[in-house]
């Protein structure tokens, strides 16, 4: 091959590599873009409202004549509804994943998993109205004092919505564990459950944990279900039996509403979203760090 | 089951332990069945409810008319067209970017800070709430770039939203292509790009398609980001056609057109005070769910075929 | 550990009271595909028996029948019997609980497969499965197993470390210790050294020679010299059939079958 | 720039006016096929902002233009017409079974909703012992709606001054659902929302002061001014330059002509016929600007504001 | 094809004009780990050279240096030279284009790795890469390569079928044809028969013997008999070092090193 051809080829190959790298960098740019927009829009907000009061105030009434900006109020709703959702999704999802990967026959698994994935795709608006019109009345039969809007029913439905994610992703991780590990356990006389719980699950831990993290992210970021069924009342509470607003609820409420661009009220949604973003960022980074550390230790298969 | 005594030599303690483990196992399986049953009941009642409410509205007219203040006359023409058009833009954004990023990370990137940075970012973006993407779009596309609440804005937003899904799917698909195929290609003198383009990508294509479809299925139901970019509008017309009989024949005006989409009308109708809109909302939700189901089913089918065709 | 056990090449037609196990007309099917055909293999008690043969001849398949490993996969089917002595039960009988079979018959695999747990917990795992809880007993038995596996000195200060921190050869010995800890009556090895370097191989072979004092072993190997070094009996398999069985020296030096001779001479495989 | 390349009438603004605007747009497009109308719901403030930047042709408003918005329009050199098109009222409602509460005075309302009431007024009996010793659960229009602004201004004397511990929702249906299911509920929102759900809710007659007769909100009482101060006019603001485009002029005239019938249909309270005539006259005369330059925007009667002089 | 080429055991210290290639003080590192140490291996033109040694000794690593396969992975590092004759260029020099190297030096892998394309396209691929477009030329060269790989008669009616429809042995010969089609000067084989059954192995060995008429071959094998059967020269490697090199008959019958002798006697590995 003549030299000229080689250099042309090298240019072409390098050009392509740069192009691909550019595409990969879009992920970084997106993160930066999110950070820039959120910080840029909330900077003027924090010029008016101090970080201190933002983090410690116990009231959230940003659009009132005498506004109060205690993000803790919204966070309490987010945390409570997410906790309810995860209390449902993580045990149920793990249970199902273990069952599907270690017990179910191949054919059963192959037919259940697509259904799970299909359920994971049901639009959340639909779940929201299911929570409000079906689950809440049902819960009220058991618990007459339950208000029509409450974090419990929103959280439960959110949990049900997240179960398929956790189950499907965990199952992938469990099945990726090499058969040789299972055989090692079976060869010692372990039952399927013992092998699954004591050997396969720890071996798949990082993948299973990743599914939990995604579940948590979904719960924290879920908007429509809580907006519809949890009530949109900013209230500092960790009681799932009460109505409350979450960070996402507030954002969508304001975006749907009439707050003019550029006003302080408008900027609150960016400040609130910034908190949400930092929350999921910290969470995902921590999980990623754990995963990487584990990989270094060689426990990941 | 055998009485452990007949196989002897293990001792009572071990035998008791094994019996206990077996019982636990049975409990676990029963529990899993109960759980599956419960989930089935929940989802069936969900679908039954929606179906019951919305069934009557699923007439041809419903798909062929625009929104109306009269519930009985309101249709989803603008909404489903909007959804399809926005999905097309979303795919056009996410597919090339996601596949390129996936190829870069799997085939080109050397381990190092930059690669780690990109990987961490992708993992993280997968967890960023969709409403935050909505605010990114509001600040960047709508305001800064002045694209307005247009089809382009929505497509870009949802495209970024599903980018991590496409990247991860691409990477997984590429990883299933055995190294031996690459080495075979290099060994006859192919360059990296030739290897990727001629061997790796074709072999990974079904997996990549599965990923993009699952991503689109996720995007199609997203409401929050569209609400934040301000897409809740009354739209009783379709975007301009991309083709015209006169020169220049092709036009991209539709990218800048305002739009509405299925999740938006669903949300709008459900939040209307007039209960007569409830069946409309349910019917729109059904259409949306059906579209999602079709997409997911396509993905499942693709994956199934892929697994059957797996040659290595 | 007693190194002085003598080799007593036994006659393959010895009465069964010195047999630990025996396959009777054993056939095995992966779905429709027959992988074993009418295999009749005696396994002498407290001796090492080697299974040799070209790749794909069914060595691993046969070995895995002994602890019902095939039960884990759908569509796998046994025919015939494997009798375990002195109880004289049929391991393959449907009424025989595979968990109990596996509790009595240990196995070591081609690639080391330690659990993602500490060194100690790896060895203790089988004991815990049998309901042993007392720390003292656990510690004593883990130590004994590690000593028997000639690993104790290397890991006694690292019992809490992850098993993955060990080298390949150490991991394989750990897997042997894990199998030994529960005092199996029969120990199956599937090419236990093929993934290891020469030094690690030598230490495992040494171990194999010593084990025979109390354990019966059945070893699949592709290394003929290894078979010659560690096993009293050798079985040569080909295309799912047992072609020849006999005392190792006899089989290697005076094979009765043409196929065995060709294989040993390296004419195929 | 929404709708690049094809003519669109862009309307944005009040959520209160939205149902009416939607009805007008729907009918208009039926009569003038080919003209496209989009209606956004950015709220009165948001709509005004876009309007003053010249991004929209019409702004719908549930309150008169504010001083700052007038200033913005002046800066942009933008002339506009202010056209009252209907009346709206805020209705105070309870659960239909809540018969103890037969009427309320403005003062009682203030005691319930004042900022000072937060956390303290939690039972009905604290306001009026006759109402029973039971929890008082409050619901109200979203805090970023014109309804909230107007209600707080009228009741608490200062716009946006309110207690915060109540269920505030942008989603009208959420409120209706909440109040209809809660025997201890008290809430407020727009007349149309109440009217759509009148069989599930009970309106509370309001007295201007103790001793005065309580007035139930009906079309008649709202139009006659008897229900003041919780009734208010709704406006559209039209960009004078846009009005030169024939389709915009057609749209505005269509609105003035058919607005009354349509308002009736969507449960806004239409203006009396002579008021529409007066508005049309103002248009013909080119009377640009607002009449609220120096006047309060609370509790005005429609007759008054049609006769006041306008200025930009 | 000419089967009558005589074997001429050559002296390993022959002048380099009959050498096709030669490594000079070649060391190789996987990251920090040295896998080859100062290897000096001559490769005689139009002869077969076998690389033998226990698992993990670096045979594959050495082989893959010849076509710069290691370039594909980050952190891999060469030291020393591989000179290719008669051009006398250093294959490992940074300015040597690895793509060019691979265009001249073919490779066949342990497991058959056909592309998921038709039989014809598999063989034609390398030709297309070199810009050959005319159907006639492609067809002629594909046919010649398939004939050289002794596969033509079996596949001439199935050229459009997927390569995966062939048997393992046929796939491996297809991979050889793919490598032959571009007329490499040097052909590398990494345990080309270890995944094949005895019959397929025999046919590949036959092919290897015939190839030497126009191609120089370098073959990694773990089967000593195979080395004896196909190679004129044999190199014994151990722990990353070249222990002994010589004409096959000399090395097998009179090894000069103790390690070689031990290995050939099966005392390790
Ligand atoms: N899970 C399976 N399904 C179908 N066929 C199988 C399966 N496992 C093995 N076989 C086939 O059964 C035959 C015997 O395989 P087995 O693994 O027992 O051979 P082996 O003698 O252990 O070979 P090696 O030395 O390569 O390990 C082979 O033809 C193999 O292809
Ligand atoms: N990618 C890699 N990274 C790090 N070390 C490696 C890598 N590949 C091989 N090695 C190590 O380099 C040494 C030589 O490996 P190589 O594969 O060349 O051995 P081999 O002689 O071909 O063995 P085998 O007969 O098993 O194929 C071994 O110790 C191996 O563990
Ligand atoms: Mg095997
Ligand atoms: Mg190798
Ligand atoms: O949308 P508003 O009418 O509440 O301003």
TrEMBL record, chain A:
Residues 75-287 form the ABC transmembrane type-1 domain. The chain crosses the membrane at residues 69-98, 118-139, 151-174, 195-214, 264-287. It is found in: Cell membrane. Keywords: Cell membrane, Membrane, Phosphate transport, Transmembrane, Transmembrane helix, Transport. It holds the Pfam family BPD_transp_1. It is a multi-pass membrane protein. InterPro entries: MetI-like, MetI-like_sf, Phosphate_PstC. Belongs to the binding-protein-dependent transport system permease family. CysTW subfamily. Part of the binding-protein-dependent transport system for phosphate; probably responsible for the translocation of the substrate across the membrane. This is Phosphate transport system permease protein. The gene is pstC.
From TrEMBL, chain B:
The chain crosses the membrane at residues 27-52, 72-105, 117-141, 147-169, 200-220, 226-243, 250-269, 281-302. The keyword DNA damage does not apply. Pfam families: BPD_transp_1. It is found in: Cell membrane. It is a multi-pass membrane protein. The gene is pstA. The keyword Hydrolase does not apply. NCBIfam families: 3a0107s02c (TIGR00974). It comes from Chloracidobacterium sp. N. Keywords: Cell membrane, Membrane, Transmembrane, Transmembrane helix, Transport. It comes from the Bacteria. This is Phosphate transport system permease protein PstA. Belongs to the binding-protein-dependent transport system permease family. CysTW subfamily. Signal peptide: none annotated. CDD domains: TM_PBP2. Residues 80-299 form the ABC transmembrane type-1 domain. Its main location: membrane.
From TrEMBL, chains C, E:
SUPFAM superfamilies: P-loop containing nucleoside triphosphate hydrolases. Residues 21-264 form the ABC transporter domain. Pfam families: ABC_tran. Keywords: ATP-binding, Nucleotide-binding, Phosphate transport, Transport. It comes from the Bacteria. InterPro entries: AAA+_ATPase, ABC_transporter-like_ATP-bd, ABC_transporter-like_CS, P-loop_NTPase, PstB-like. The keyword Protease does not apply. SMART domains: AAA. The keyword Nucleotide-binding applies. GO terms for molecular function: ATP binding. CDD domains: ABC_PstB_phosphate_transporter. This is Phosphate ABC transporter ATP-binding protein. It comes from Chloracidobacterium sp. N.
């Amino acid at each position: 091959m003549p030299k000229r051809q080689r250099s042309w080829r090298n240019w072409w190959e390098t050009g392509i590599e740069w192009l691909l790298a550019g595409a990969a960098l879009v992920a970084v740019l997106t993160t930066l873009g999110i950070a820039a927009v959120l910080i840029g829009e909330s900077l003027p907000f924090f010029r008016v409202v101090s970080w201190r009061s933002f983090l410690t105030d116990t009231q959230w009434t940003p659009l009132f004549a005498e506004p109060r900006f205690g993000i803790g109020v919204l966070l309490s709703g987010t945390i409570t509804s997410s906790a309810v959702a995860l209390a449902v999704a993580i045990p149920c999802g793990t249970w199902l994943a273990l069952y599907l990967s270690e017990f179910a026959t191949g054919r059963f698994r192959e037919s259940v998993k697509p259904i799970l994935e299909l359920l994971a795709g049901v639009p959340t608006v639909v779940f929201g109205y299911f929570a409000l019109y079906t689950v809440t009345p049902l819960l009220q039969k058991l618990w007459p004092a339950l208000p029509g809007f409450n974090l419990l029913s929103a959280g439960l439905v959110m949990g049900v919505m997240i179960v398929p994610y956790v189950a499907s992703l965990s199952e992938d991780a469990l099945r990726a564990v090499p058969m040789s590990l299972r055989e090692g356990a079976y060869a010692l006389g372990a039952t399927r459950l013992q092998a699954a719980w004591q050997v396969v699950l720890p071996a798949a831990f990082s993948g299973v944990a990743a599914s939990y993290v995604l579940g948590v992210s979904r719960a924290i970021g879920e908007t429509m279900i809580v907006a519809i069924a949890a009530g949109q009342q900013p209230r500092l509470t960790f009681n799932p039996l009460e109505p409350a607003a979450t960070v996402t609820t507030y954002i969508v409420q304001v975006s749907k509403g009439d707050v003019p661009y550029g006003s302080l009220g408008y900027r609150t949604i960016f400040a609130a979203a910034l908190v949400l973003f930092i929350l999921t960022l910290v969470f995902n980074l921590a999980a990623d760090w754990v995963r990487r550390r584990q990989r270094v230790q060689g426990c990941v298969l | 089951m055998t009485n452990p005594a007949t196989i002897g030599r293990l001792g009572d303690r071990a035998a008791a332990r094994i019996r206990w483990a077996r019982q636990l196992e049975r409990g676990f399986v029963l529990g899993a069945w109960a759980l599956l049953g419960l989930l089935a009941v929940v989802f069936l009642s969900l679908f039954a409810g929606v179906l019951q409410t919305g069934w009557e509205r699923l007439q041809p007219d419903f798909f062929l008319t625009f929104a109306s203040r009269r519930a009985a006359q309101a249709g989803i023409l603008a909404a489903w067209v909007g959804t399809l058009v926005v999905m097309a833009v979303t795919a056009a954004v996410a597919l090339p970017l996601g596949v390129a990023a996936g190829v870069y990370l799997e085939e080109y990137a050397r381990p190092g800070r930059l690669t780690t940075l990109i990987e961490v970012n992708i993992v993280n973006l997968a967890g960023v709430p969709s409403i935050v993407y909505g605010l990114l779009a509001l600040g960047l596309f709508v305001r800064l770039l002045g694209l307005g609440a247009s089809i382009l804005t929505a497509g870009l937003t949802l495209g970024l939203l599903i980018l991590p899904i496409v990247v991860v799917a691409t990477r997984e698909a590429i990883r299933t292509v055995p190294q031996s195929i690459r080495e075979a290609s290099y060994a006859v003198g192919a360059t990296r790009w030739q290897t990727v383009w001629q061997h790796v990508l074709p072999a990974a294509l079904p997996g990549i398609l599965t990923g993009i479809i699952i991503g689109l299925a996720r995007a199609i139901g997203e409401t929050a980001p569209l609400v934040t970019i301000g897409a809740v509008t009354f739209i009783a017309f379709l975007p301009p056609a991309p083709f015209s009989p006169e020169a220049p024949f092709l036009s991209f005006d539709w990218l800048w057109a305002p739009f509405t989409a299925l999740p938006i009308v669903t949300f709008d109708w459900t939040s209307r005070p007039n209960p007569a809109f409830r069946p409309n909302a349910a019917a729109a939700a059904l259409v949306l769910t059906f579209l999602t189901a079709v997409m997911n089913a396509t993905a499942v089918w693709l994956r199934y075929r892929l697994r059957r065709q797996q040659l290595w | 550990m007693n190194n002085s056990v003598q080799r007593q090449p036994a006659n393959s037609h010895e009465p069964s009271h010195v047999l630990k196990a025996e396959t009777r007309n054993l056939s095995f099917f992966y779905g429709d595909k027959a992988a074993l055909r009418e295999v009749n293999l005696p396994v002498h008690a407290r001796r090492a028996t080697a299974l040799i043969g070209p790749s794909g001849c069914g060595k691993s398949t046969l070995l895995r029948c002994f602890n019902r490993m095939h039960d884990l996969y759908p569509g796998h089917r046994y025919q015939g019997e494997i009798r375990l002595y002195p109880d004289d039960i049929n391991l393959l009988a449907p009424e025989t609980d595979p968990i109990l079979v596996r509790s009595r018959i240990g196995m070591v695999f081609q690639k080391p497969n330690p659990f993602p747990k500490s060194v100690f917990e790896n060895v203790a795992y089988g004991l815990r499965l049998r309901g042993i809880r007392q720390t003292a007993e656990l510690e004593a038995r883990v130590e004994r197993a590690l000593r028997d596996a000639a690993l104790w000195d290397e890991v006694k200060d690292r019992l809490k470390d992850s098993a993955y921190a060990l080298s390949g050869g150490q991991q394989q010995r750990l897997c042997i210790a894990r199998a030994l800890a529960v005092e199996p009556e029969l120990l199956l090895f599937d090419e236990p050294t093929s993934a290891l370097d020469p030094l690690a191989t030598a230490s495992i072979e040494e171990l194999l020679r010593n084990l025979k004092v109390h354990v019966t072993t059945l070893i699949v190997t592709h290394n003929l010299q290894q078979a010659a070094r560690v096993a009293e009996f050798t079985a040569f398999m080909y295309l799912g059939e047992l072609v020849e069985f006999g005392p190792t020296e006899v089989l290697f030096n005076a094979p009765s079958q043409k196929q065995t001779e060709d294989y040993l001479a390296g004419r195929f495989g | 720039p929404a709708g690049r390349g094809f003519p669109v009438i862009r309307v944005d603004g009040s959520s209160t006016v939205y149902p009416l605007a939607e009805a007008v747009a729907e009918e208009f497009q039926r009569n003038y096929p080919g003209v496209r109308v989009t209606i956004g719901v950015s709220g009165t403030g948001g709509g005004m902002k876009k309007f003053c930047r010249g991004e929209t042709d019409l702004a719908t408003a549930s309150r008169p233009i504010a001083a700052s918005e007038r200033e913005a329009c002046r800066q942009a050199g933008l002339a506009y017409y202010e056209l009252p098109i209907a009346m709206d009222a805020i209705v105070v409602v309870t659960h239909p079974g809540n018969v103890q509460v037969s009427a309320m005075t403005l003062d009682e309302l203030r005691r319930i909703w004042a900022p000072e009431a937060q956390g303290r007024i939690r039972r009905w009996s604290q306001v009026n012992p006759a109402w029973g010793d039971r929890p008082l659960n409050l619901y109200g229009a979203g805090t970023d709606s014109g309804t909230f602004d107007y209600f707080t201004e009228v009741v608490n004397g200062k716009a946006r001054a309110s207690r915060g511990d109540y269920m505030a929702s942008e989603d009208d249906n959420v409120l209706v659902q909440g109040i209809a299911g809660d025997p201890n509920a008290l809430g407020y929102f727009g007349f149309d929302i109440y009217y759509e759900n009148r069989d599930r809710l009970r309106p509370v007659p309001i007295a201007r002061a103790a001793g005065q007769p309580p007035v139930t909100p009906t079309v008649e009482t709202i139009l006659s001014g008897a229900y003041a101060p919780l009734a208010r006019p709704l406006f559209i603001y039209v960009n004078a330059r846009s009005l030169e485009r024939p389709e915009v002029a057609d749209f505005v005239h269509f609105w003035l002509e058919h607005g009354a019938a349509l308002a009736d249909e969507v449960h806004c309270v239409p203006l009396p016929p002579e008021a529409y005539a007066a508005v049309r006259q103002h248009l013909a005369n080119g009377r640009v600007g607002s009449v609220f330059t120096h006047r309060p925007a609370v509790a005005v009667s429609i007759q008054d504001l049609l006769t006041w002089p306008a200025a930009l």
